[in-house]
Amino acid sequence: MTTTTKYIKWGIWAYLFLLVFEGALRKWVLPGAADALLIVRDPIVIGIYMLTLMSGTFPKNGFVTFTIGLAIASFVFAFLGGHGNPWVTLYGVRTNYLHVPLIWVMAETLDRRDVRRLGYAILAIAIPMTLLMVMQNRSGTDAWVNRGVGGSEGGQIHGAMGRIRPPGFFSFITGPMVFFPVATAFCLAFVIEKKKPLASWFVILAGLCIALALPISISRGVMIICGCVAAVFLACIMIKGAFNAAFARALVATALVLVALRFMPITKEAWIVFMDRWDTAAAEVQGDAWGSLTARVGAGFTTPFQLMLDVPFFGRGIGLGSNVAAKLLMGNMGFLLSENEWERAMMELGPLLGLGFIGLRVTLWLHLLLLSWRALKQHGDFLPMLVTAASFAPLVLQQWSQATQLGFAIFDAGLVLALINNPHLPPSEDEEEDDESGESETDGDDRNDPGGNNKSGDSAEPEESEDELTEFEKRRRRQRGLA
């Protein structure tokens, strides 16, 4: 490993920890610097880019080129027909485009072992995250654990029965909405692998905390997105026909989690509050809570295209729809355009660039889906598909002007491409991972075949000479837009 690669990996780890704990800094540690901390990850991203530029490894592919082109055009359009405020424009360009190339930096820098370590870190964070959410759920709105950004009291969103929607370490409930789906993805992928008892119990404990966090959150979004990840997991099991010892382990782990939850008084109370929130939402729409939810999601896809004829060609200026723009231009936080992300993009950028920005995000997710499907079919690898499922909401639908949602959109996509780009580890590295993590994954090659379908116990790919392997890797990366 080169020194540059090592520094980039450190930067990626710093990106994750600031992504998770940025809210804690803004609420409790440095509330006076809450506005500045909103972009605390940007210097790390810029530093990573400088390292890749100096080493000649900055990603070069159609996605990155298109992103740079959109950024330049969006900057120009903001002054041709938009608000013309340079600070709002720069913040908007930063929001939409600055972090996107990091996806391919992660893909080229991280190997599977790195991704697994990041996954275990996410599961480890999920444990104190859930405990903090329980404390927030059971505390009053004026308690210190429920302070909002800048240390303000009453700064969290109401849930039901006098309880707030606990954000954990994040600034708002939007954080758990993107954190727990990817935690669910790693938990489900790890639970079907053969591990030593200590590692297995750690994964089960993390799964218990994730399952408890869902009703505690009082958020339908958290529940539904995590449920979708679980549904994708079951679909992968059926597609690969993996009804074997690995699946039995998953069932046993699930049963242990459900039994533990059944006898926890806080779980029963959390479900009562969650269902009250659901009933309240249903009452607001004449009893059709599901219909209201699906209609709102559907409108997010269709409304932007209905606005195309009414939006100025140059748009109203990139960045105008963010809370930062509202604070700079109006003096108060809020949404000057729309809370819906696609509407915001269309109104800020105009019909031409708006379609380009939406198309970039949708195409990228479909690209991840295709690569994950190939990994599932060819190698029986569940993890890319599960993380891709978790990435759908932040990558395609959610607001990138919200720093946490932007961060997880980029981070999830980078993890998927890293798994696809480096699907297998050499035996020496595999053995080193066993020694370091205490996991045993050589039997049945469960890492590369979670379903246990590799009957020979050998690697799924034949051995090749170094020259052949190098040429194979180059050809494979060119096909996947990574070289």
- What percent of residues are in strands? under 5%
Helix content, binned percent: 55-70%
- Rg over CA atoms, rounded to whole Å, is 23 Å
Helix/strand-derived category reads mainly alpha
The total tally of domains equals 1
Q: H/E order of the elements?
A: HHHHHHHEEHHHHHHHHHHHH
Largest sheet: number of strands, sense, barrel closure: 2 strands, antiparallel
Extract low-pLDDT stretches.
425-469
Shape category: globular
- What's the total number of strands? 2
Give the spatial strand order of the biggest sheet: 1-2
Mean pLDDT: 81
Number of helices: 19
Detailed description of the structure:
There is one protein chain. This protein has one domain (3-285, 368-392, 409-479). Helices cover 69% and strands 1% of the residues. The protein contains 19 helices and two strands. It has a two-stranded antiparallel sheet with strand order 1-2. The radius of gyration is 23 Å and the shape is globular. The relative contact order is 0.13.
